[in-house]
Specification:
This protein is an alpha+beta fold. The strands form three sheets. Strands 2-10-9-5-6 form a five-stranded mixed sheet, with no helix packed on it. A hairpin with a 3-residue loop joins strand 5 and strand 6. It is rod-shaped and about 95 Å long. The N and C termini lie far apart (89 Å).
Length: 221
């Protein structure tokens, strides 16, 4: 019975050390944390050898070195597979895009803009935006000519797996900036940028969670 408990404890420790090591790799811990983790590993492995490995290699019931190596390898593989599977399931995976209904418009024609954030993950994922909508759209030619009205308010959004958070905008090809508000634009190439700012954004276009861009051509009638 005691021998089986030693084996069980050894398997649990190897599994745990494998999981912790891979988690540190996936999360890209800072250097200080990595050094601390390496120090903890040295202590943990030393203790495991003293209190678990030696009893399993000695005594009336004992494991051969070959079996010990096979058991260790098996638990590392199991620990790696389980950790990777869990990490794959819980890690957010998104697709963020901005599209228009056409690529070329006549001057004065309404431009229909669609922004979509799709959850490609396996579970529902959430994020916090610095604005309440949560999407901001900016249009630029040689300079910025338009952006949608937005309200700064930290808001949380949740998206289920394989579902999308979608926002639609209409631009009537007029300017929305200061004294130029309401003035018509000129023909040319215009760039549409859509983004979702994080809660840490001081300037609205800094620290973006998601960003996508597209371009359109506006021609004379």
């Amino acid at each position: 019975m005691k021998f089986r408990l030693y084996i069980l404890a050894f398997c649990v420790v190897v599994f745990f050390l494998t999981a912790v090591g891979l988690t540190a790799l996936y999360t890209r811990l800072y250097l200080v944390q990595i050094l601390w983790l390496a120090f903890a590993y040295v202590i943990a492995i030393s203790c495991m050898y003293a209190f678990l490995v030696q009893p399993l290699l000695a005594g009336e019931r004992k494991l051969s070195g070959k079996k010990m190596g096979l058991l260790t390898f098996s638990m590392i593989m199991i620990g790696g597979f389980v950790t990777h599977s869990v990490w794959t399931i819980i890690t957010p995976k998104w697709s963020f895009s901005v599209t228009t209904d056409k690529s070329t418009y006549i001057l004065g024609e309404y431009v229909k803009i669609t922004v979509s954030l799709k959850n490609l993950g396996f579970i529902t994922h959430s994020f916090e935006s610095a604005v309440s909508d949560p999407v901001v759209v900016s249009i630029e030619g040689n300079y910025q000519v338009w952006y949608n009205p937005f309200h700064r308010s930290i808001t949380e959004f949740s998206v289920r797996p394989n579902e999308s958070l979608e926002r639609n905008f209409i631009w009537n090809q007029t300017k929305s900036l200061n004294i130029q508000f309401g003035e018509k634009i000129e023909p040319g190439i215009y760039y549409i940028e859509a983004f979702i700012p994080s809660v840490n954004s001081g300037y609205i276009r800094s620290n973006l969670l998601f960003r996508a861009a597209a371009s359109i051509n506006i021609t004379s009638p």
